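This part of the workshop introduces the protein records we will be handling. As an example, a complete record with its sequence and its structure tokens follows.
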Amino acid sequence: MDTARKLLKRLEIPHDPKLSFSQQLITNEDLLPVIMEHRTWRGYNYVAFWIADMFNINTWMIVSSMIQLGMSWWQAWICVWLGYGVVTPFLVLNARPGAIFHITFPVVNRTSFGIFGSLWCVFNRGAMACIWYGVQSSIGGTCVLVMLRAIWPSVNDIPNSMPASSGINTRDFMCFFLFWLISLPLIWFPVHQIRHFFVVKMIVTPVAATVFLVWCVVKARGIGPIVHQPSSIHGSSLAWAMVVSLMSCISNSATLVTNAPDFASRARTPGAALYPQLFAIPLTCSIVCLMGILVSSSSQVIFGEAIWSPVDLLGSFLDDDPSHATRFGVWFISASFIIAQIGTNISANSVSAGCDLTALFPRFINIRRGGYIAALVGLCMCPWNLLQSSNSFTSYLSAYSVFLSSIAGVMVTEYYVIRKGHYKVADLYATGGSTWYWYTYGVNLRAYAAYIAGILINVVGFAGATGRTVPLVATRIYELSFFTGFGVSSVVYYVLSRVFPVIGAADKFEEVDESGYEDKRSAHTTE
């Protein structure tokens, strides 16, 4: 028993010995407001962050499904502009509390769902971040395979020693594991320092993508037939295809909308997390998607079919005894895509999972440990099996965006409409009936009622997405799931908060900490 107690003691995160047991359950250094020295992110860091996040294989390929629905390339590109242009303001709105009060998503979520009520939302998002870490690592493994083939073609002929039940062969698992392994050192760096990696990726990845585009266009002697291909659907069919495509872009960003405070908390000024993000996200996504369209269109001339996956296209260049120049080009571009996938995994998954797991187990986990746990889960979950059953995985992701939009609807309404920017930061780390965020034993029942309402309106439509017969109107509502989930949860939360007023509800919008937490901490530090 003593040995176990000593082991647990060694595993604990360093904390103030004056903290009570209940405070240790909700507080550690990574959950407290970010100190002044770590508020290092300027506007250009957020631009670099979004270039780093959006230059990835998923964004590159997102237009492919739109064109396969029958749209022309420019109609699909408009959907990308509209989708990311519409979702970005939601992201910026949700990032604002983090930029003003320098706190991460799990702590911001306490203001609306309660000190303990927030744990369910945090768990949901943390679990999803772990799953996505594995999926992105699996995709990164395919980039490693192409890069190794460019150096040693014999890699493609490694004999398989894995059983069929594993769902993978020895060659592919080796590449997946190598990608997973080279990602680990970057998880070590704290959030305020990892911004330098995003600046590096902002330079390397766009250069490689541009080289890839020029190479394919020159080799095809033009931009190919896809850009001349007209739309094969019209009228209402076209309209709803565009709606579905637009919503796929929004669903692709639903996790980022929710975790926006994580990186905004490191902003040097609130403005640094506002306008740079507002313009960088839709612009970067549209450029990446346009490159994907032009490269894939060129590939149809080169290989006789449109190859939408940049990894598969690079692999095709290595078939049939390529020249040394071709192998070097494939190596450089695939290595850049590896950097892209690592950056995406850090920005969207490891930091998010680290923040969430820190809130779930603050005595034992900080952001760094949480990031490594996400990596371990991503390895153990065998993510390649998820990608093999792509239809089920896509349905799961669509359903998950409903949960996240309902959470975001409550959070945005709480900050901008109910309390109108008024915070009591000290109460975010306290329990008891007199504090603002204790609600009913630490749970805000109003928020949960609104959250469930935002989910319920999409339940019938989700059943239709899984193959069941449902009314057309339910399908249409589900196709607008982000807006219906966000809107319903927002309205229900507003009504319930007016009928059953919360402590600290304000009449005038003013972003202020009524507890004076920052001043008190500064005074304590100087003492």
In short: The chain has a mean pLDDT of 87. Residues 324-360 form the longest helix (37 residues). The longest strand covers residues 422-423. The CA atoms of residues 84 and 282 lie 5 Å apart.
